[in-house]
Amino acid sequence: MKKIILFADTGIDDAIALIYALKNPEIDLIGVVSGYGNINREKTYRNVEYLLELAGRTDIPVIAGATRPLSGEEPVFFPEIHGIEGLGPIDPPIPEERYQNRTNFSKLFGLIKDNPNDLIIVNVGRCTSLAIAHYLSPEVMENVKETYLMGGAFLEPGNASEVAEANFFGDPIAADFICQHAVNLTIVPLNVTRDALLTPREVDLIDSRSDSPLEELIKPILDFYYEVYQQLEPGIPGAPLHDLAALMAALDISGLYSYSKREVRVEHEGNLTYGESIADFRARSSDCYGPNCTRIALGINQNVFVTNVFEILTN
Ligand code: BDR
Ligand code: CA
């Protein structure tokens, strides 16, 4: 069983990753760090509380993460992609007091200290909260066993700009810091998660097997997300589940991914290249092995992906 802390900006694909984590018997979800990103921190926090409540798992701590990038600039949110509240058509009925009484970072450090070298961090939003955790307490963060990021785009276009993926674009200073300092780092980039698709037919099949309030949320939010993607990328056969794809990398599912190891940097000074992820994939370069080497997913097996997602979400 893998002990996982999810850093998320919940968000539709974050929500599907969270639902999957709650339903997968191989995952022991020991906390969620909820920061700004797709929407503001208050909304992401309420969304996580809502999903945990529907799952009957309010024992899992939700820790309030960052509210803006390390540059200090105002964050840009994406209600047109994730809905006004971040869950498509859903407005989670979570009272405001819950956010007022939110849990802070000391809880995160306590969870890591209680599980030395046994904890995996999966970051599927901006890297700000994770970078702050490393800045605040590098000695505690050394106890993290592995880190996974959904972010970046290698050798293909971005989504937030021509060259940059949204999580890295949203805070490239934090993303660059994590690429240089997180131990045992794996990145599952946009050029791979773009292929982590669920078609409307597959979503309908999952829905036909839903028998809990948590599972019944899957179809309305993914239908919303699919419609959005039809506008963004007309003809795309399904909705890309970026964050779920990154979470699944932590599970060693046989045949799901192929990888390469490279040093990764994230541009945070250039105007035209702001947020671009850079690794050396020239023909003459090969896998590296130093402490700054990051495992980068190169491709996903769609059959393995869909089969596993179906199995977990309908069990
Ligand atoms: C990433 O950006 C966010 O919009 C999604 O939740 C995902 O984490 C995809 O680029
Ligand atoms: Ca996300």
UniProtKB/TrEMBL annotation:
Task: Specify whether Transcription is a keyword of the entry.
Answer: no
Q: Which Pfam families match?
A: IU_nuc_hydro (PF01156)
What Gene Ontology cellular-component terms does the record carry? cytosol
Q: Which InterPro entries match?
A: Inosine/uridine_hydrolase_dom (IPR001910), IUNH (IPR023186), Ribo_hydro-like (IPR036452)
Q: Which CDD domains match?
A: nuc_hydro
Biological process annotations from GO:
purine nucleoside catabolic process
An annotated Gene Ontology molecular function: purine nucleosidase activity
Entry's PANTHER family?
Answer: INOSINE-URIDINE PREFERRING NUCLEOSIDE HYDROLASE, URIDINE NUCLEOSIDASE
Query: What is the protein's name according to its record?
Result: Nucleoside hydrolase
Organism classification: Bacteria, Bacillati, Bacillota, Bacilli, Bacillales
